[in-house]
Every structure is written in structure tokens, then in C-alpha cells.
């Protein structure tokens, strides 16, 4: 997971932190982010924060429930999720998890060339190399978008 953590300042958002969380053993990156002391100490209850996640896979049902619970406890935090792939999207529990997250007001989007390029620029040590979209990126994003819209009932 690549993430951006921003604090609202007037009508704009100011970047506070950006980084990467990886899955470890049996703990997914989403849960590691939610329980990170470094992240939690940045979230002052008196201010509004926007978090953006760029995920390789959409959250599993258990992570989706954990995220929804976190957002319910932290009303001053909004979350946007961009996914490169849909995790086990035929599983009814995972489908419900995505619907639950969406119902919290969390937009879930499929990563497009724009998001991949942003991640390339911000999180990859590319040594000045330009981002090169791979063949079929747009078609794959369109396919995943249709599947996600079907899951979310959009």
C-alpha cells in the first residue's frame, strides 16, 4: 500500500505524510496502517484529514470491516481508495466488504494511468525514468471498473 495523509487547511489539503505499508505475516497492509502509532499520533481529533490509499488489491472482507470501524471511530478522517486489482471479487463476503466500505462514503476507484503515474513519481526510485504504461492498462482498468460498478451497484 502506498498512502498519502493530508490535513485540511481552509479549502485545501496540506500533505503531512506519505509512505508505504507492506503485508507482514498474517497482517494486511490496511490493518498495519490503521494500527500504526506513527499514523495515529498525526490524527488530531480537532482537524479533518484525508487519506488516500493506492492498493495492489482491493481490501478483503475482514480489512474492509476494520476500515469501516476505524472510520466510524475517527469521524474527522476521510478515505479514498484506488485499487490495481479486485481481490477475490467473486466471493460474496469480499463483495459485501466493498459495499460496506462504499457505504461509509469511501470512494473506491480502479487505478488508471493517472494513479499509476502518480505512484511512480512519488513512491518509486525511478532515477529520472518516465512512467511507461504497459500494453492493455486502459482495457484492464475498464474491465475492472465494470466489475467494481457491478459489485457496488453503481
Automatic annotation (TrEMBL):
<dbReference type="GO" id="GO:0045869">
    <property type="term" value="P:negative regulation of single stranded viral RNA replication via double stranded DNA intermediate"/>
</dbReference>
<feature type="domain" description="CMP/dCMP-type deaminase">
    <location>
        <begin position="1"/>
        <end position="101"/>
    </location>
</feature>
<dbReference type="InterPro" id="IPR002125">
    <property type="entry name" value="CMP_dCMP_dom"/>
</dbReference>
<comment type="similarity">
    <text>Belongs to the cytidine and deoxycytidylate deaminase family.</text>
</comment>
<dbReference type="InterPro" id="IPR016193">
    <property type="entry name" value="Cytidine_deaminase-like"/>
</dbReference>
<dbReference type="InterPro" id="IPR016192">
    <property type="entry name" value="APOBEC/CMP_deaminase_Zn-bd"/>
</dbReference>
<keyword id="KW-0378">Hydrolase</keyword>
<dbReference type="GO" id="GO:0016554">
    <property type="term" value="P:cytidine to uridine editing"/>
</dbReference>
<dbReference type="GO" id="GO:0004126">
    <property type="term" value="F:cytidine deaminase activity"/>
</dbReference>
<dbReference type="InterPro" id="IPR050610">
    <property type="entry name" value="APOBEC_Cyt_Deaminase"/>
</dbReference>
<protein>
    <submittedName>
        <fullName>APOBEC3</fullName>
    </submittedName>
</protein>
<dbReference type="GO" id="GO:0005634">
    <property type="term" value="C:nucleus"/>
</dbReference>
<dbReference type="GO" id="GO:0008270">
    <property type="term" value="F:zinc ion binding"/>
</dbReference>
<keyword id="KW-0479">Metal-binding</keyword>
<dbReference type="Pfam" id="PF18772">
    <property type="entry name" value="APOBEC2"/>
</dbReference>
<dbReference type="GO" id="GO:0003723">
    <property type="term" value="F:RNA binding"/>
</dbReference>
<dbReference type="GO" id="GO:0051607">
    <property type="term" value="P:defense response to virus"/>
</dbReference>
<dbReference type="GO" id="GO:0000932">
    <property type="term" value="C:P-body"/>
</dbReference>
<dbReference type="GO" id="GO:0070383">
    <property type="term" value="P:DNA cytosine deamination"/>
</dbReference>
<keyword id="KW-0862">Zinc</keyword>
